[in-house]
């Protein structure tokens, strides 16, 4: 049944209004604001004059017959926008596989230079150089202090190739010194400014007395007798060490009183102290901490294949040895149950950095360097985030690479799909 047959059959009985007036109305006329966009030439309009009268078709009133000429409106003329050809992901990956990022040159140069400096050292370790400053009071009344400090310096030099310097702190009453704090502040500032880089380790060793003053501030003292002792407020000295770039290890043969104000922006600041209480003087005695420290360093270096000794491991060994030291000093008391333990504090601006290590020199390595191409090769591919690379963190990571690496070559980075 055609549309015209349906109109004739149901028009008379349909309750709806006459549909004839609607037949000639165009369906969904184009809005005025759309029509003026396309100009049309009547001569270009194609007229379809082919008769299309179906069987039994008759013109309905008010509706033009289907045999009438139909006007076809052509599409607007103009340049055709070609649809881009989609590229498969595999093809895109192959195309962009060697597309370097804009900062490739600077990143490659920085990482390769860092790796080269580390691998070029004949005795490769985490640090290229270690400097130590050993200080004690000039007017210390204990003759064993100078001997203990001298022995520690020998261990540093002979077994660890540490460049050290021994200085005696002048008291404020001595000739040529008006203030002990200014003297020590100047010494510490010069020490921290020298080779203040991430590849250098600084060690500050102190042997003397310490206590909390009336302001609850830690002070270094030349004597246990507070009435006649020369004192130095420690907070100002420690601040210089906190602001250094080099990793810094503080070793104190004295009581250390922790402060909540300790802050480190770059690298590590670690402390190993004899105790956090003045009671250790009566239990362990003077210089026991320093002599034990020297013995532990000497024992580690004497091993056939010595591994680096970290500050955290050193603290654990001291904690194990303390009971034996106390028992040898006070045999009548038997095995001590409680004692003032050694103290270890680690502060870092980067929580991923491990404890500071002291490494005995390894035998000279041969066959290392970019000119020697022998040996197996292992390649790592890493997908990075969109954030800028922190080259300082990468340099820290390279400094802790394991033994057995001869050379490092950096390629990329590339903007590509990870494969």
Number of domains: 2
What's the number of extended β-strand segments? 13
Report the major sheet.
6 strands, mixed
Strand content: 15-25%
Helix content: 25-40%
Low-confidence stretches: 19-24, 34-39, 44-60, 87-98
Strand order of the largest sheet: 4-3-5-9-10-12
CATH class of the largest domain: Alpha Beta
How many DSSP helices?
A: 12
Q: What is the residue-mean pLDDT, rounded to a whole number?
A: 78
Shape: elongated
Classification by helices and strands: alpha/beta
Within the CATH hierarchy, at the fold level, what is the topology of the largest domain?
Rossmann fold
- The radius of gyration over CA amounts to 43 Å
* Separation, N- and C-terminal Cα atoms: 63 Å
What is the N-to-C succession of helices and strands? HHHEEHHEHEHEEEEHEEHHEHEEH
Which architecture name of the largest domain does CATH use?
Answer: 3-Layer(aba) Sandwich
Structural overview:
The protein has helices at 3-10, 20-23, 32-35, 89-95, 104-120, 144-160, 180-193, 234-242, 280-283, 288-301, 311-329, 391-399; strands spanning 46-48, 70-72, 129-137, 163-169, 200-207, 209-212, 218-221, 231-233, 247-255, 268-275, 309-310, 343-348, 357-358. The chain is α/β, with parallel strands linked by helices. The protein folds into two domains: 102-124 and 366-419, no CATH class; 127-358, Rossmann fold, CATH 3.40.50. The strands form four sheets. Strands 4-3-5-9-10-12 form a six-stranded mixed sheet, sandwiched between helices. Strands 6-7-8 form a three-stranded antiparallel sheet. A two-stranded antiparallel ribbon has the order 1-2. Helix 5 (104-120) packs parallel to helix 12. It is elongated and about 125 Å long. The relative contact order is 0.13. The model is unreliable at 19-24, 34-39, 44-60 and 87-98 (pLDDT under 50).
